[in-house]
């Protein structure tokens, strides 16, 4: 018996929390950069989306610790170069606090180009993952040193630029900063204790690209040039007869660009999303109606107007 249908997330990775209250999955819109999958957490009791986590990379697996306090995700993070375009990715494992969605730790040691197949020991003290036909076992890090950064990202022209990131951390919290790509360099100290500042410079090229700094375990995307994620939907205006029916909207976009779809009227229901990253489509239904009315869908940030007339002709 089907108890609940949740339309939207791609669901290539899907896992319940141990207490059965939440369901976590990857996919959809809201990412911080191209090839940022996002993780969406739904409440099982009513299917409501309660949190969207960004800067997740392309998610390959998700697990929860037995106490329901921490969620762990594995991924590959894309890397770009001004000369060679996409270069080998970086495998990453991220630890998230369930109470508020805070990113506790980014782990990228012995992760190769993609970390996969996460699992957690029954006592919650160890986690394992795989890459390149090898399994690794490590200790779950302590969650007593949680930092935040501001701003959360940076955008510059293709020629590049320089910037500053402020770190807020407990007074005795030791943290580090590192660049994933050689065209972003940290200027000055790359570590600190407590509050601190990281200065960096990004050397551009002739095209749009994104690189990551990992600062105090937080992901800081640096993007050069125009946003590579643009979206076109078709049709954008549809008229229906009183008896309603089922329709579809086509979405065209670049690979790795996530998007979402929402109905803004209770008589228009989204029934299916075919791919929520890159090009795809949305299927929706229009309920029968006796009065003229107009509603909208928001798909990939674009508005699709749905009209219903009382004149069947």
Helix and strand run: EEEEEEEEEEEEEEEEEEEEEEEEEEEE
- Overall domain count: 3
Arithmetic mean pLDDT: 91
The SS-based structural class is mainly beta
* Main sheet: strand order: 13-20-19-15-17
Number of separate helices: 0
- The CATH class of the largest domain, by name, is Mainly Beta
The third-level CATH topology of the largest domain is Methylamine Dehydrogenase, Chain H
Low-confidence stretches: none
Please state the CA-atom Rg, rounded to the nearest Å.
22 Å
Helix content: under 10%
Return the CATH architecture of the largest domain.
Answer: 7 Propeller
Biggest sheet overview: 5 strands, mixed
Name the CATH homologous superfamily of the largest domain. Answer: YVTN repeat-like/Quinoprotein amine dehydrogenase
Strand content: over 45%
- The rough form would be described as globular
- For the terminal residues, how far apart are their CA atoms? 40 Å
How many beta-strand segments?
28
